[in-house]
DNA sequence: AACTAGCTCAACCGCCGGTTC
DNA sequence: GGAACCGGCGGTTGAGCTAGT
């Protein structure tokens, strides 16, 4: 099967696989736009990349998912949603496509009854509104030894909400290192707080004293960080904590 | 044996963010 | 600044397989 441009589509043949493997072994991964040319394949860059990453790569584990892996997928999906590459990243030998397929064929159905229960719960007539205690965190300061801080400066961290993008841009323009550094450290610190708080949720009773696990400070809006920027950083991620989620 | 429905998973598609020019 | 290109991602599709009737 070929498309309008004469590029082959559809299932890969044994011969094509052999050519692709030989090419990757010779030149390494990457430069996918060159792969079809180098390998003598009439396939588009995406097709080559996908075939390698999802099927031909020697790192791929093709055995069925173990109980531990399934449990990990469920927990990570709860945490990350449909971010299959991130989930697959914690499962050695598993590709995002594998995880996604497994989720859709096996696990989604498991989750649906739970969702229905949630829905039914929501549709129940509401009891009288109770006031909820808003948990306010204690400001956290870092010691001068903290790796979150510049080794030379013991800077009191500003939450990033207090340093606007404009300020940072202006700081960059005038080469104001302190503001720039403060902003970055603020981000790093908030990253740490966010993750720390998330992991602690399972251990701490949220009803305990103020400040135990919230992400918000009074009058200051903290921007939640992007998970993938720091999530897998070994400094932050004690994977064992996931079991407490 | 023949047909059908459901399942699995490889592959495609469209979109996005980053980089280069 | 923006167009072109690239790598990468998540959603979706459909061919092939299997189990049930």
TrEMBL record:
Domain of life: Eukaryota
Keyword annotations: Activator, DNA-binding, Nucleus, Repeat, Transcription, Transcription regulation
PANTHER family, A to Z: TRANSCRIPTION FACTOR MYB8-RELATED-RELATED, TRANSCRIPTION FACTOR MYB90
UniProt domain HTH myb-type: residue ranges: 4-60, 61-111
Full protein name: Uncharacterized protein
Cellular-component GO terms for this entry: nucleus
Protein's cellular compartments: Nucleus
GO MF: DNA binding
Gene3D superfamilies from the UniProt entry: Homeodomain-like (1.10.10.60)
Keyword match Transmembrane helix: no
Region (Disordered): 116-143
GO biological process: regulation of primary metabolic process
InterPro entries the UniProt entry points to: Homeodomain-like_sf, Myb_dom, Myb_TF_plants, SANT/Myb
Boundaries of every Myb-like domain copy: 4-56, 57-107
Annotated Basic and acidic residues bias: 116-135
Species: Pisum sativum
Keyword Transcription regulation: yes
